[in-house]
């Protein structure tokens, strides 16, 4: 089952999270530090740096340092000593919820400057009256006086102008006392559920590395957590308030975006890494812990950390590992060093009500975040343009960690579905982008959040000769030397290449035709990937940039002219051959299969005879062909057909053998590809044909008896979707049973998603309202998530419209869930036009309310437009782009371009293939 989310980085969460005593109220405090004196505009700050008037970066050339988004390099922080005290009761004099704090930042001046720039986020922050910014020189340095300070709104800096210069090589301390409001505006600092957050402070702070000694002052009876272990907890009285003061060990040197603080009344369970003193804890709402929902995560964390210690050959860098589930969280999880935050659905598992898919989500998300403790945290990226270095690597390694913890799940095989196919789909568009962007292309917060996309997460390293760790252990040694050299520091991608190259040179018997840099740069500096065409009659092999729409125009120049160095692993007649960089061998009468186990990031096409031989082999005995390749043959064929490289009937024929297939992955691969047909046709007459659908009916039955669990789920859900009557009746009956006795849900956890959806689709307002009530009352997050998606399945337009309205009402649908709810509605064939109208009518509101930098805009646009396949829809899309040019599309900008490109391709595809598809299905029926 698909992972709920794969994005782990909540860019917004740079600062604090706090939960009130009740555990219901979670307060996220984004800013840690600052002072400001402009009246109402005062903002909190969480980074410190200064600027020299000479600034190196960027395209347009603003005159002043504070007009640049990136901080200059004239100052570098050494430590941030932060003390924070959030008040969870209304302040009598101001009528507001407030927090107060103190901050001492020690920084070193690298280049002479008379400016200090401090990045601020959206927090309203005021200096306590009577206090000023205090600048002190250390080690005999003299601090100049402050002339003035102001807030630069656009770039969100607090600018401090000094009377004299700070001297290069000297260190200074900037001290402030501040007070801020715990507003409920969901920006930076907020009360109530944690949801959304601006991105900007991360922009500022990400390249800053320092050490953070932290102290939290909190209400008695609550627990305070931060990155380090608590070293001292004392009860004390401050200004007449009885409080607890918790001091934490200073963090390691790290990026500010990894800092986190939480105050809550949460409970926890404890474990450890075997033979190690590292304290492992899982935190969550008291009730969730009491009901045992944290045990699964705890069970897998110890083994995974132990595995990573061996894999990276580097011990876990901290003294403890806390993981905490928050009722609201905009991303899936965030890898704060030593204090990882999760959505509840990504950390908690309830054996009684959660499905195996939910369990898998917990496993893989935890594996991903823990992998970051080394790759991403111990060694971090220099700038966001190289995000893939963090994310791609963690997205790969998570499968190894997950496999170690659940060795019987064969989870590594799923990489092909979850990562490779997903990224193939977007990277085949002319509007894709290179994995690594130029530093200067990524500046603004929305540009940064746009980097958190499928390509950064999934394209990595597949396809490189060095990336897929070879069993020779060579790769592990590379990682060790890389992590060792750059521990507590940051890198650019070429640092990794250097280490790989060194390994190649020092390994006896290992040689590459080119340097690692030459090979790998082609994969990361140009977008896309090749289709390799093998002519088995002549032995000729050629490559070409694979574009889903062959007529699309690639206007992005590539330094390599869209050619790649492709390592080709292959087999002939069932026998594995030596890897070739070029293949020069004719096949005779034997089939040739290339990209064995899909170790390379490319698609493969063959001459017609070889396609026939492969299809024959699949039918005769598919087990000779490796599992992953069976899935890949189907996926390559369907995509080559979409790109008009082969014909559609050939692609459809690769699915015939599936009636003998018992494994999940090839089935899932076929279903995902057939889903495209359904999306293209479910509003037209061909759909009737698909439904009558024939051979597929038979397939579903085979499917239903299949032992593989995911196949059963797939079979039932696909059969229902295709309108199989028995399926509709069955799901409705089960659901009705539940409605009659709401305290006893008779539906198996693994089937809930499908049953809920189909029963609501077949039902009316009664079913819908019941599901809504159950959604509102759900105390387990995974259960709520299933109901929320099922509510979008109704075919009743007014219910869908009402649900759309609910999606923008935070009292009904949490802000974190707004865009995915709209996407669910759009996935429904009846809901799609309603959702599209809804978005068009309210774009500016949604954009403002939910933040242009928010991640989910690309998902929203993808979700709503995935069915688009008519000229009229393309026109509407263009109009939409034009109409809202003034508002903007933020992190959805690229998605909008992709949507237009995909729509254009769909229009052509439907025109060209409708008849072939209809014929094929009607022939298969008879
Ligand atoms: C916080 O700042 C915003 C904009 O700067 C302003 O609209 C709002 O009224 C402020 N809130 C408070 C409570 O001062
Ligand atoms: C940090 O600041 C607090 C409060 O000002 C102080 O008590 C503490 O000693 C400081 N810690 C360090 C490591 O400077
Ligand atoms: C502080 O006070 C709380 C509640 O009054 C109590 O439970 C806790 O044990 C005290 N802690 C210390 C370190 O005295
Ligand atoms: C956690 O591990 C224990 C001990 O092996 C086992 O009894 C328990 O069922 C596991 N819990 C979960 C939720 O996997
Ligand atoms: C970080 O790495 C750079 C080289 O990339 C090096 O110059 C610098 O000294 C390192 N800093 C630390 C603190 O290790
Ligand atoms: C780039 O590739 C295209 C097509 O493969 C070819 O026509 C063109 O000459 C190449 N250009 C360069 C500069 O190599
Ligand atoms: Zn990640």
TrEMBL record:
Please list the residue ranges that the record marks as compositionally biased, kind Low complexity: 48-61
Keywords associated with the record: Aminopeptidase, Glycoprotein, Hydrolase, Membrane, Metal-binding, Metalloprotease, Protease, Signal-anchor, Transmembrane, Transmembrane helix, Zinc
- Site Transition state stabilizer: which residues? 457
Required co-factors:
Zn(2+)
Q: Which GO terms describe its molecular function?
A: metalloaminopeptidase activity; peptide binding; zinc ion binding
Q: Which positions fall inside the Peptidase M1 membrane alanine aminopeptidase domain?
A: 296-523
The membrane-topology field of this record reads: Single-pass type II membrane protein
Locations listed in the record: Membrane
Give the E.C. number(s). 3.4.11.-
A Pfam family that this protein carries is: Peptidase_M1_N
Domain Aminopeptidase N-like N-terminal intervals: 77-258
Q: Which residues form a coiled coil?
A: none
Q: Which domain of life is it from?
A: Eukaryota
Q: Where does the record place the ERAP1-like C-terminal domain?
A: 591-903
Record's Gene3D superfamilies?
1.25.50.20, 2.60.40.1910, Neutral Protease Domain 2, tricorn interacting facor f3 domain
For this record, the Gene Ontology CC terms, alphabetical, are: cytoplasm; extracellular space; plasma membrane
Q: Where are the transmembrane segments?
A: 12-33
Which CDD domains does UniProt cross-reference here?
M1_APN-Q_like
Segments of this protein annotated with the region Disordered: 40-61
Q: Which GO terms describe its biological process?
A: peptide catabolic process; proteolysis
For this chain, the family text in UniProt reads: Belongs to the peptidase M1 family.
The name of this protein is: Aminopeptidase
Question: Gene of origin?
Answer: ANPEP
